[in-house]
Amino acid sequence: MAEWDNVVTIELRGETKTFVRIKSTKEAAKYLIEAWPGSRDAAYHDAVVACAGALRGLTNEIRVVEVLCKAASSSNLIAYDSIDAFEAEMISAIRMALDTDLQSCLEATLNKFELNSINFVEVGI
């Protein structure tokens, strides 16, 4: 089994912003069976069946990607079925974090500068 053209990235909900990247049907089957964090509902069952079928050559891998994303959605997990969508989301998150850090640094620098100016004037008197 070859790797997929598009990697499926599943964002696990929570404070930690953990992501799982799945690149093949074999990885998908293993993840579904060993580590699936979502509900084991009908969508999950469809994903397991599709993986089994694809591993036996009875189903194509495009179907596996589709049902894996549906299973994630059914469990309130976010699934990206292309690198572009995932990377766009990551770039947005990184920009927001950098903006926040830069704002904090700028405020600290300005506060320090204002205090030094006041001290300089007081020392110069």
Structure description:
With 125 residues, the protein is mainly alpha-helical. The protein is 64% helix and 10% strand. The chain has four helices and three strands; from the N terminus they run ββαααβα. The protein has a three-stranded antiparallel beta sheet. Helix 1 packs across helix 2 and helix 2 packs antiparallel against helix 3. The chain is elongated, with a radius of gyration of 24 Å.
Q: Largest beta sheet, briefly? A: 3 strands, antiparallel
Shape: elongated
Q: Per DSSP, what share of the residues sits in E-state strands of 2 or more residues?
A: 5-15%
Helix content range: 55-70%
The computed structural class is mainly alpha
Which sequence of strands runs across the widest sheet? 2-1-3
The unreliable regions are 118-125
Whole-number average pLDDT? 80
Radius of gyration: 24 Å
Order of SSEs, N→C? EEHHHEH
Distance between the termini: 79 Å
Number of helices: 4
How many β strands by DSSP? Answer: 3
Strand and helix map with partners:
Elements: E1 8-12, E2 18-22, H1 25-34, H2 42-55, H3 61-74, E3 78-80, H4 83-124
Antiparallel strand pairs: 1-2, 1-3
Helix pairs in contact: 1-2, 2-3
